[in-house]
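Open question from group meeting: does this chain pack into something compact, or does most of it stay loose? Before anyone orders reagents, we agreed to write out a predicted structure and look at it together. Recording both the input and the output here so the notebook holds the full record.
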Amino acid sequence: MFDSGLGGLSVMHAVRDALPGEDIIYYGDCLYAPYGDRNSEYIKERCLAIGRFLISKGAKAIVVSCNTATAEGVNTMRDTFDIPIIGIEPAIKPAAAATKTGVVGVIATTRTITSERYLRLVREFAGTKVKVVSVPCPGLMECVESGDWDSFKTQKLIEKYLHPIKRAGADKLVLGCTHYPFLSNVLKRELGSGTELIDPSAAVARELKHQLSKRGLLSDGAKGKEVFYISGDAEKHRAVIERLWNSEEALDLRSDPPATKATLS
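C-alpha cells returned:
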C-alpha cells in the first residue's frame, strides 16, 4: 500500500480488518508530499518508482491508497505491472444514490477535483439529478501529517471549506482524500448530525480481498505483520504514525532506500 503521505493509513485500517492474515507493507511518500501540488508526470513517476519497490519486497497486489495518485497514476501502473492494482476514488456513486436532499459535498485535493477521472465520476453517477459541490482543500492534508487535528488552524480551515457545502444543503460528504477520515470528529462537529460522511476505505478493502481470492492468493496465516517505509527520515514521523495506526505493538518503521528517490524536481 502507498500514499503521498500518511493518510493511506485510514485505508490500511480497513484492509487489516478485512484481511487479518496478510502481511502489509505501507509506503508513505512523505518527502515528496503533497502530490496535489505536483504535475501529472511527476505523480506517475512516483507511482512507478514506489510500485517497483513494493514488488521487489514481494508484493502480490498494490493498493494505491491515495486519491490523487489513483487519478493520475493508476492506469500507468496497471499498464506496467502484472499484479492487481487497486485504486481509491471519491465515493460519488454511493453518495449520489443515497442523498435525500439531492446535494452531495466532496472535499479533496485540487489535483483530484480537477482530474478527468474525478470529473467522469461526477458525470456518470451524479449527472443532472444530483448537485455535487466539489471543494479543493489546500492545507488540510498537512494538518493530518503534522498531527495537528484539533487546532484552531485546522478548525478554521474546515469551517472555510465546509461553508459552501453546508450552504448548498448537502446531506452526504464524500471524503475525497485518505487523510480526511482522521479529521472525522472535527468534520462532524462542524456539519452537525444531518450530514453523513462517506469514506470508501471499506470498499477498497473488499475489492482487494476479492482480487486476491479469485487468484488463489489469500494468506492462510492467522496474523499478518506490518512494515512501514517512509521516504526521507522515518523517525521524524514516528509519533504521528503511532497515533494514526494506534497499535499496542511496536512499529517496524524504516526509512526510504535510495532506489525509490525521485528523479524529477
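Observations to bring back to the group:
The radius of gyration is 18 Å.
The first helix runs from residue 9 to 18.
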